[in-house]
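Extended Data, panel c. Modelled sequence:
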Amino acid sequence: MTETQEKLGAHEVAAFLRRHPRFLQQFPDLAISLVVPREEGSAASLASYQLEVLRDKNRELSRRLQELFANAQENERLSVRTHQLTLALMRQNTPADTLRAMAASLAEDFNGDLVRLVVFQPVAGLDDTEWLQVIAQDDARLQPFRDCLADGEPLCGRLQPEKHALLYGARAEEVQSTALLPLPGVGLIAVGSRDTNRFFPGMGTLFLRMMGESLATALKRFEG
């Protein structure tokens, strides 16, 4: 019975302190005499415990601010490079030069280990090019890509073996992660990395979509 009463009393005291957070200011000697158990080591005074809690929160906030700053820097870098890519594509005079500019930018400016493009129509001037394949849109080899070509949404991560085999051929084993950008009516763009964590499911794909739209728009200039 006594233990139950003590527990109820403790809860009541805790509730009272929550309602009156400045109570200990009226009784500083009580605040000094209180001790707070710690996960490691001996007990600490209430003041030192609160100080340590504030320090922990400050360290966590600093870590989050650093992450936000790093993300902002990366997004700014990608924005600049995407803009530069768009301008470069618009300066080209032929479809072949446009595709070359796209492949070069993905390899150099966006750090792609293996860049591969699949287009549905032949492109004059690009007959023997390692990074380009011409495959008709109704070709059975593109069956594994039907869904992503239909919705036009980029895919990131480790692709299925049949997709890897078609995109990278004999070098498929080198690729551990891929950013795949389908361009309905045009083809596919794949950027492969030897780093498993370079491209992963759930990562942002805004800049990928922007680059794909830039390429599709640049190629439309030569239609008709």
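The longest helix spans residues 46-91. This feature is highlighted in the accompanying rendering.
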